[in-house]
Structure formats: structure tokens, C-alpha cells
Amino acid sequence: MGQRIGVYPGTFDPVTNGHMDIIARATRIVDRLVVGVVVNGGINTLFDLNERMEMVQADIKSLGSKMADRIEVRAFDNLLVEFVTDVGATQIVRGLRAVSDFEYEFQMAGMNARISPKLETVFLMASESNQFISSRFVKEIGRLGGDISHFASQNVSNQLVARFAQNESD
């Protein structure tokens, strides 16, 4: 049997402690994890692709080399099932925070299975301490000057503060 490769896709605008929790836990069920950063997920992002990828890579390094060496960060701009196949993965890893996430993720898993029946979608429930964290809320709290240190790494927090300061001066 070959190496179990999984893909954890997302926009990661920005990467949060919730994302990092799923990344760390996903390494328990796969031999190698590819974090797929969507080039343009149909939304306006606060950070460009390179900034998002750099933040994810920096946070992954903080997990320690034993875990980080098994994780790769790659950008993609095609169908998720095509990207998953291109990297040789057989699993799509998705995080669920609440019941409201499930309906969308359930539909997406069904569509992906119809397109590529050999792929499996694996759902990981958010840890209790991360169930309420979303990138959207982290950005909003940061934009309004709130403390986001409980929701994202210091690196991400610093980048958010700098981005909002830059936007105010523009």
C-alpha cells in the first residue's frame, strides 16, 4: 500500500488557530498532507496569494520539524478534485465547526464524489476551543482594533494589524 496523501484546501485569508488545529490533527490520519491554498476562491481576499501561502508556511513551521516535514503548501486554481488527483492524494480533509458548516460540506463532498468516485472526504470536527473561530470574524475583530491573539498566531496577528494600518493610511 502506498503513502496516504491528503489535501486540506482553503482560502486561508488569514490562516487561524482553527485551521492549524485541523492541519495538525490531519497529520495523524495521513502520511503526507498538502495544504491547498485557493488562488481565487471567488471572493475578495485581504491578503494576496503569496502572503496567504507565506503565513500558512510560517505557522506550519511552528508545529516542529517532525510534523512540518510531512506538510506541503501549494496553490491551486483548478477544480479541487483535479488538484487532489494531481498531487497524488486520495483524501480531502475538511474541518467542521458547527452544524451550519455540515450542509455545505456535505453537498461539496457529494459533488466531489460524483466527479471523482475514488476520492474520500474526511471531516474533522473543530476542537472545542476552536469551534467559533473563522477567518471572517478574525478579520472583523482585527479591523475594529480588537485583540485577535487568541484566534491566530502572533505572525498572522502582526500582519493583520499592519494591513489594517496600511488601509487606514491609503
Fold and architecture overview:
The protein is of the alpha/beta class and 170 residues long. The protein has a single domain (5-128), classed as HUPs (Rossmann fold). The chain is 45% helix and 18% strand. It is built from seven helices and five strands; from the N terminus they run βαβααβαβαβαα. It has helices at 17-26, 49-61, 65-68, 80-86, 99-115, 135-143, 154-169; strands spanning 5-10, 32-38, 71-76, 91-96, 120-125. Strands 3-2-1-4-5 form a five-stranded parallel β-sheet, sandwiched between helices. The longest helix is centred in the middle third of the chain and has 17 residues, at 99-115. The mean pLDDT is 92.
The CATH homologous superfamily corresponds to: HUPs
- How many distinct beta strands? 5
Strand order of the largest sheet: 3-2-1-4-5
CATH topology: Rossmann fold
Number of domains: 1
Helix content: 40-55%
Which structural class do you get from the secondary structure elements? alpha/beta
- C-alpha Rg, in Å? 16 Å
List strands and helices in order, with pairings.
Elements: E1 5-10, H1 17-26, E2 32-38, H2 49-61, H3 65-68, E3 71-76, H4 80-86, E4 91-96, H5 99-115, E5 120-125, H6 135-143, H7 154-169
Parallel strand pairs: 1-2, 1-4, 2-3, 4-5
